[in-house]
Amino acid sequence: KLHTADFWQTQLDRDPERRIHRSYELFWIWLSKSWWVMEAIRLNIFDSDLFLWSDIGCFRDRRYNNETMILHRDVVPQNEMMQMAHKTPNPPQSETLFNDKYHHKDNFYHSGSQMVAYIETWKMFHRYFLETIDAFLERNMIIVEDQAILQSVCLTYPEICAYIPFKEVPDNNYFGLRYVVHNGGEFKLWRKVG
Fold this sequence. Notes:
It contains 7 helices and 4 strands; from the N terminus they run ααααβββααβα. It has 194 residues and is α+β, with helices and mostly antiparallel strands. A 4-stranded mixed beta sheet has the order 1-3-2-4, sandwiched between helices. Helix 4 packs antiparallel against helix 5 (119-138) and helix 5 (119-138) packs across helix 6 (146-156).
């Protein structure tokens, strides 16, 4: 569902980081990540079965310039979205919809900058993502932080998510998924139980 400019302005007005974000158009970009991947899947010009979303900020240095990103597709779980946990996962005990990373920092661990999965998992994840946005809005929760919504998808539907804990990767704790799919290896994935 598309919303009016007034709706988005209200979202920005309620955003605790509105001075940093400055425009609600930024939310459109953040909330479009899975949509962009769904478009890539729809077009699928390379006949791929594995898709990775990566924020451009993951390539601030030259470490992966001129490199093929995914060399170890074997590390990606067949039926789960693999993502980074930028700190030790500590999910909230009593809620699955989480959007207060400012007052409950201990419960916020979802990087959001990179996600990788096979096609069918992406399709399911995208559907759950849209349902989670609707659930946020039904509860009058702001939808200005894609990380909070993505983490909430994984809290609500834990069977579809697997996290690489940052301590497992000798790379940036937000962007470490690039290391995982490029270098491969044995990793202890974290999954929310129940």
